[in-house]
Amino acid sequence: MNKPLKRLTGKEYVLGVQHLFAMFGATVTVPIMTGMNPSIALLTAGLGTLIFHLITKGIVPVFLGSSFAFMSALIAIIGGNTANIPKAQGGIIVAGLIYVVFAILVYFLGIERIKKLFPPIVTGPVIIVIGLTLSPSAITNASSCWLLAIIVLVAIITVMCFTKGFIKMMPIILGLLIGYGAALLLDATGATASWGLAESGKLIDFTAVEQASWFFDFSAYTLPQFDLSSILMIAPIALVTFMEHIGDITTNGAVVGKDFYSDPGLHRTLLGDGIATAFAGLLGGPPNTTYGENTGVLAVTKNYDPRIIRLAALFAIILGLIGKFGAVLQTIPTAIIGAVSFVLYGMISSIGLRSLVESKPDFSQNRNLLIVAVILVTGLGMPAIQITDTVSISGLFVATLVGVLLNVILPKEKKEEEKN
Q1: CA-CA to 160 of 20 to 30 Å: which in 65, 282, 298, 370?
Q2: pLDDT in tens, 335-355
């Protein structure tokens, strides 16, 4: 690990809260949509992140939260009946173990072989696709109240471009606070209802806070069941998220300016992701995945200290154990989340563009043009390919796979071979 936790300053604790805000919405959305417990999702996200940091030597500033890739399979298995959650848990554990197998393969094949498969001409466009494919959700969320979304966007842009020092490092959390204050004001003055800003007449609904208990009810815990049909529905999705993991670690490394493929090693990041996912299944949480939202926060704040991510993990654990606190965060209007996503998802795509530009590819070569073109069009334009009723392959997965294949198959010109 880095410096002792006690040496962190108050400013860094605030940055940890900012990372908490970035992960919260997506992490609780998966259990809400699938019928799993949001508090357990927060708990396993925090614990999973700490497990990941332990396995990766504490040097990769990654946060693990609920994975959307498994959502359709979880919905099909649980089917609105919480009695089926143990079956989903068994499948999630096996999916995590598949990651462990991938980690072993990567370790014995060697990192150089992996890196040759994923040069910047492939990873740059893939990172761009990751950010842009998330953008529709930002638009959808922001459109629930454009006035509120614009207020938050203006606040974030102002902090990023017109402030200095520590304030400049807190655009997300300040944008959230300003937006939340504006929502409270609009509700209190009656503007929300009279202007039709929300269908319910209120931008903020405190019902969840009133109904939530102060402490987590451990009676909600269930033991996993290893049901073969459920395992066959969930576990194969790890084949898809494996490629997404590589893209996320590449993105994180591009933001931080470090080669995490070499240190701590891709095998360690895969192992950390897999063990964290299996642990989440054991406790009854959804599968974990590396979060682009928090990588976006790293890009905005330019503070890459992994200890701050671990602080966010501890905060998530606390929120998972104290129901009232988690319920308060659930009251954040969708439009505010959408506005924040505007910035974070755009930053991810910008990082991919920067990674591509800094590698100085020779676009006079048709080979490079074709690789980038095919990745962008496939990743952005191809809908998910349905393998079974519950398992599909995303356009991002296909784009990454095709990009890797083209990079291997298409011949390089002599001057590019000399450059490499």
Answers
A1: 65
A2: 988 888 788 778 878 878 888
